[in-house]
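Example record used in the benchmark description.
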Amino acid sequence: IQVVESGGGLVRPGGSLTLSCVASGFTVSASPMSWYRQAPGKEREFVAQIRGTSGSTNYGDSAKGRFTISRDNDKNLVSLQMNSLKPEDSAVYYCLANNYPKWGQGTEVTVSS
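Model output (structure tokens):
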């Protein structure tokens, strides 16, 4: 079982970025899948989750109204669309397969002008 994140990078404030989490060894529709983030010197913070069966979503306060989590069952991946990015969104973003649980290695997002 493995999850691999990608899509991080440097983006200007107000910009957008889409992160991807590709799963192997299991089906993303069979497990809740979550995104967390961790900035230097801070605790790991919940960002968003998509439920396995229902596909319902919920978001952390910092993500509400700006981020969207979605799932592509054909590609067996989960995405995090991030809009209106702020410098405080800079962090390493991690994907979690909740049922197992299995973390990815993370992908770094830097929001800076």
